Structure of D-methionine transport system substrate-binding protein:
Amino acid sequence: MTIPFFLQRFGLFLASSILVLSAQAADLQKIRLGVTESPQSAALELAAKLAREKGVDVEIVSFSDWNTPNLALAHGDIDVNYFQHQPFLENANAQNGYGLVPIAYGVENKVGLYSKRVKSFAEVPDGATVAVADDPVNQGRGLQLYARAGLIQLKPDAGPKASLQDIVANPKHLKFIELPGPQLARVLDDVTLAQSYPSYILSAGTADPGSALLFSDDEANGHLYALRFVTRPEKANDPAIRTFIQVFQSDPRVREAIAKAYGNPKLYSLAWLNRQEAAR
């Protein structure tokens, strides 16, 4: 049977289209980005979609803890991760010999002291149970908040890695419990105060993320606790990774998605903007 001419032409057009699409897919640069639970998830997904328009195929890989993303990156299972600040990265490198490097700033998540039982630090009762992070870096960040609140005193040289052993005065005899960072948002019914992160409070729905009795003053720390895009040294200038970061940092649609996710500008800051302004 003879195939009509218009069907022959349609078949050639379809075949050509498939070849063009296949070539475009083959030309895409592919990267795998490791992340943890965050209000930024929608913004990261949007940035991945926009990066594809620039020739970069971004696969987002989610992790449920704070240790595996660096292990996966060091082993080459992912190309870049985005979940940690500089002190956390330095501690991970020191403990595990990863040699991972930060290559760009991201969003800076505030940390706060939250309570469902008291409305001021003056109301904290003697012997109250309070919560801090159990990892050596974020625990220090939380203890600095307790010290700023006037509830404890730390050794003068304790610094960002302060631990419970660095407490030199505890006039209210607070009982500290240590928990993994992501769990702190879920214990507000069980403790008088908890160090926590608005991002996790938002995800857990246990309180108003903006209701902390005290927030961190991250600008005073030079954005030390801003999240970083982190990779292996040989990937530091990878064009695909750099393209994705450029989209994340500069596209106004991504910025709108970040603002929508947090819903309150005092819960976060765009650290790369502040760093750029400081450099001028």
Remarks:
- The longest helix spans residues 5-27.
- Residues 14-25 have pLDDT under 50 and may be disordered.
- Residues 198 and 209 are 5 Å apart (CA to CA).
- The radius of gyration is 23 Å.
